[in-house]
Amino acid sequence: MKKKILFLSIMLAGASMMFNTMAQGNFALGIKAGYNSSKFRTDNAGSIIGGDQEYTYSDAKEEAKGGLMLGAFARIKLVNNLSFQPELLYVKKGGETSFDGQLNTSVNTEYHTWDIPLLAHLKLIDLKVINIYGVGGPVASFVASEDNKWGDINNYNSISENMKSAQWSFQAGGGVEFGSFNFDVRYSWGLGDSSTKLERVNNNLTFSLAYKIFDL
Question: Which CATH number does 26-215 carry?
Answer without folding.
Answer: 2.40.160.20
